[in-house]
Amino acid sequence: xxxxxxxxxxxxxxxxxxQQYNIHMIPLGVNIEGTVYDEEIDITASEFYDRVRxxxxxxxxxxxxxxxxxxxxxxxxxxxxxxxxxxxxSGISGTYQGAVQAGNMVENINVHAFDTEVACYVQGMFxxxxxxxxxxxxxxxxxxxxxxxxxxxxxxxxxxDDLGHxxxxxxxxxxxxxxxxxxxxxxxxxxxxxxxxxxxKIRTRKKALRxxxxxxxxxxxxxxxxxxxxxxxxxxxxxxxxxxxLAQTYPSVEFTLSYFGPVIGTHLGEGSIAxxxxxx
Length: 280
Prior knowledge:
Layout: E1 3-8, H1 15-20, E2 24-26, E3 29-32, E4 35-38, H2 45-53, E5 60-62, H3 66-76, E6 82-87, H4 95-103, E7 110-115, H5 120-135, H6 140-151, E8 155-159, H7 164-168, H8 174-183, E9 186-192, E10 195-202, H9 205-223, E11 226-232, H10 236-249, E12 253-259, H11 262-268, E13 273-279
Parallel strand pairs: 1-2, 1-6, 6-7, 11-12
Antiparallel strand pairs: 3-4, 3-5, 8-9, 8-13, 9-10, 11-13
Helix pairs in contact: 3-4, 5-6
């Protein structure tokens, strides 16, 4: 049994990781003042933040055309029996549904689409778990069962500077954005039922990060050893310092530093920081 692993660009796996693990990636796009860039291919995260800082229009994001999935799946069908295709939450993007539709359009290969119900490097963790099993000869169905089990141990929390990005992008209600702005809070957000919702409103960034750390402690108590990621929106030094402190404090957790690329960065904004985890 040969199983291929596919994901989209919002997993923010590095080029080296994608090459090392033979991960196939379909990019989402970001439209900056009329020009559409495929993230992770046409534009890097740092280039994105530099360009939008001076842009007159708010960027827009686009999901991949179904044809890109169909083309990739048909190519993979020549060498593989199964495909496990792993995507950002279906509650914030139609990418997962596009993969499902494409899977129904191809022959000679079984396509298993997995909705992570999250995004960014937490999504990437699911991808790397799938690759481990695929390398051992696991079927797509077996991999899907493992990912569903891991999902029960997964969580992620985001601290944003400005809720306006999420509101303008349609990923958060206007009422929630207004409340955040009026109170001058540092809102903590998380995924609930596949969509981004407020978790708690905290007065300062330092206290917000401490609250996220408290959630990590609860997860350690419940699940034991974890794999975790600290993710930043163009504030690498702060994120790295936080991650290093956490790694010293919680030796049972294996940390990876990652970033919000153009698509997720459009909705969260520069200066956002997050942490997510799942069981090892």
